[in-house]
Design goal:
It is built from 14 helices and 15 strands. It has 395 residues and is an alpha/beta fold. It has a seven-stranded mixed sheet with strand order 1-9-8-5-4-2-3, sandwiched between helices. Strands 7-6-13 form a three-stranded antiparallel sheet, with no helix packed on it. A three-stranded antiparallel sheet has the order 12-14-15. α1 packs antiparallel against α9 (252-262) and α3 (69-79) crosses α4. The structure holds pyridoxal-5'-phosphate.
């Protein structure tokens, strides 16, 4: 067996393979260049065009573009009417923005544990965490696999809660034949470079609720009531601010990029699926690994490919195996540290040990590279490195 790189052997590949990376082509560059030559750098026609394109793609009736996915979540919790001292149920493992948005409102994130198969928020634990203060549920489609949306909706209906889908990972995914973006009251998307399509930075909120969409348009623009300007034809300088908003506007430059990217999304989703299948076939030989599961009624957008190390089958810790894979020049990652473990959350009084599934999964998880621009050689390098390292540390 070849010596592993961390013990002095030669690495599987010469250069580091990232865990995720955008694809930018000539069409994207032309689209951005056209905006740069035009009149509108921001608040122009590309914003509307991008909103309409995402709305058409997802079949969500209303789409409001903003300048980050985090701003999209902030707008969503605001539109949901979350106020100080309300409680919002959030999965214990996600990117920190999924919970930070609740703190922005002065409200309290209440962390629910995960389902062991998908690592999505566990509907049974949601139900256990509901109190008289609970106002909303934020469900994250972890790694691109849609959460158990019907179960979540049923709980929300029973208790009169608003539902927010954090779909930063799952644009293009489906749940029981329905598209991500239509599954909950509000859906937040992110267009960060590691996500399904990128605008550099950007986000969007999708909803079927016309009133909420109009309020979020005002929220992203300082709380300015746009209708005043339209009503007052003689006094075009008129405007009013009737709520506290922010400047969360996204530039036309970004939206032109997003629009161009969107035309390639379906092809990229197919490539992600292909990579997932190749990994699945190759790693079926390795009982030391627990592979991601896909439930029968969903199609995953495969944002991440998260493996877990099988308990008792390896002689090295997750951290050691992580380091060994990095030494092979495979850019592995860990998604994510449980949010209540983070220092800011600890300072708010959250303590470890309350989310057994999430905390166990965290201790065993590694994200392997997964992005549509990976070549077949890249995919095989990952398989070779994982096989080499896992066999080396096999118990
Ligand atoms: C990326 C991400 C966000 C935030 O998106 P930004 O565009 O980076 O602000 C929110 N939630 C999840 C789950 C994410 O992965």
């Amino acid at each position: 067996m070849a010596t592993i790189a961390i013990e002095g052997g030669s690495p599987v590949r010469a250069t580091m393979l990232a865990y995720a990376r955008q694809i930018i082509d000539d069409d994207d560059r032309r689209a951005v260049d056209e905006v740069l030559r035009g009149d509108w750098l921001t608040t122009g026609p590309m914003v509307k065009a991008f909103e309409e394109a995402i709305s058409a793609y997802t079949t969500a009736p209303h789409a409001v573009a903003v300048n980050t996915g985090t701003a999209a979540l902030h707008a969503a919790v605001w539109a949901a009417g979350i106020r100080a001292d309300d409680e919002v149920i959030v999965p214990a493992i996600s990117f920190v923005a999924s919970a930070n948005c609740v703190l922005y409102m002065g409200a309290k994130p209440v962390f629910a544990d995960l389902s062991a198969d998908t690592l999505n928020i566990d509907p049974e634990d949601i139900e256990r965490k509901i109190t008289s203060k609970t106002k909303a549920i934020i469900a994250v489609d972890f790694a691109g696999h849609p959460a158990d949306h019907d179960a979540i909706s049923a709980i929300a209906k029973k208790h009169g809660l608003v539902t927010i889908s954090d779909a930063a990972h799952s644009l293009g995914g489906r749940y029981k034949g329905r598209k991500v973006g239509t599954l909950q009251d509000l859906t937040a998307l992110s267009f960060h470079p590691v996500k399904q399509v990128t605008t550099g930075e950007g986000g969007m909120i999708l909803t079927a609720d016309e009133t909420m969409s109009r309020r979020m348009r005002s929220f992203r623009h300082h709380g300015i009531d746009l209708d005043v300007h339209q009503r007052s034809k003689s006094q075009s300088w008129q405007y009013d601010v009737n709520t506290l908003g922010y400047n969360y506007r996204i530039p036309d430059i970004n939206c032109a990029l997003g629009l161009s990217q969107l035309s390639k999304l379906d092809r990229w989703l197919e490539r992600r699926e292909q990579i997932a299948q190749t990994y699945k076939t190759a790693f079926a030989q390795l009982p030391q690994l627990q592979l991601p599961t896909v439930r029968d009624d969903v199609s995953s957008a495969w944002h991440l490919y998260v493996i877990r190390l099988a308990p008792g089958r390896l002689t090295a810790s997750r951290d050691k195996i992580f380091e060994a894979l990095r030494a092979e020049n495979i850019g592995v990652n860990v998604h994510y540290i449980p949010i209540p473990w983070l220092s800011h959350y600890a300072s708010l009084g959250y303590t470890r040990g309350n989310w057994p599934v999430a905390e166990d999964a965290h201790s065993r998880m590694i994200s392997l590279p997964m992005f549509p621009g990976m070549s077949d050689t890249d995919v095989h390098d990952v398989i070779a490195a994982v096989t080499k390292v896992v066999n080396h540390y096999s118990a």
